[in-house]
UniProtKB/TrEMBL annotation:
This is MFS transporter. The keyword Cell inner membrane applies. The chain crosses the membrane at residues 12-32, 38-62, 74-91, 97-116, 136-156, 162-179, 199-217, 237-257, 264-284, 290-308, 329-347, 359-379. It is found in: Cell inner membrane. Coiled coil: none annotated. It is a multi-pass membrane protein. NCBIfam families: mfs. It comes from the Bacteria. It comes from Marinobacter lacisalsi. The keyword Membrane applies. SUPFAM superfamilies: MFS general substrate transporter (SSF103473).
Amino acid sequence: MSRKTVIYWRLSNLYFWFFALLGSLLPYWSLYLEGRGFSYLQIATLMATIQLTKIVAPSVWGWIGDQTGLRVRLVRFGAVVGSLCFAGVFLEPGFYGLLVVMLLFTFFWNAILPLYEVITLRVLGSKKEKYGRIRLWGSVGFIGGVAIIGAILEFIPITMLPWLLLPVFAGIAVSAFLVPSERGARKSTAPNGSLKAIIGHPAVIAFFAMNFLLQVSHGAYYTFFSIHLEQHGYGKLPIGLLWSLGVIAEIGLFLIMHRLTRYFTVRQIAIGALLLTMLRWILIAEVTDVVPVLIFAQLLHAASYGALHVISVQYVQGFFGQHHHGQGQALYSGLTFGAGGAIGAWLSGFLVDGFSTSAAFWGGAVAMVFAVFITWRWLQPPPESTAT
């Protein structure tokens, strides 16, 4: 086996297990919390912690990674300590105890991916077009987690979910120690502009605003999609398969994304993806009972996550450069997935508690209207962007 092949699989491995945990957790954790007797607002608050710690954790770990260059060691540390913190779930604490456990667990767990994105892109060097092919293994892991856990939960109580997650945590810990070492590489001594100046650029502000609203719109999806489907008579295995279908579409997008960036600008791809995302939330809100339409809506995950994430990772690299890459990736994770995801989860909780799960998805569609306008008006391509 060639050295390039070994590096490819070692880079892909952690993506697989990290997203296998996400696939095992996201679709079923709200159902687990519902089974534990928590209210919709409590469920929204607990689910929001998964996004909330992304506001702080990636910035803290990204700064340490930029200063020391020891990102691989930090990834390993986050994988092990995050797994140990999750063990607090087995004590079956009440609402506030579980809130503390999830805050601690996600603080370390959410440090892994932004650091690892930097590691992967630096290993790839000038061959960044291969990023999608490596990242797709995360999607494969997500599908595997969703399908296997969903099938098992058809036969055992949802309260057993934490025990089913243990092998996945073990996979993350082991794969973290297979990541090639950076050998203590330090940050560059030649910055490509101050971090403050980069963040203050109108195009960068528009980029973060677009992604913030995108993640606000996903709040209902990540928090209440499974509950929404269960209310419409879907079983746990069909729910898992529908989650998996979205990620299958995402994989297909990753495989062809490098071709799309040859023919469309960053702005064109972003606006098209945002419009499709708005359509997706409307279809889920209003046509849940029509299976073919729901399948189509899930296929639009290729746009609402896949396309926008690929151009966003490259956007951060283009604007923040090597010197601020870690902090840029942390800001992308914190301000969008973190702040946007947490606020979206809370808002969806209020909408579900006051109205219905459908109302929460309509709220996501409204957020997309503002995102489209901001993107159309202010988004510009980054310098040295791989998307023309």
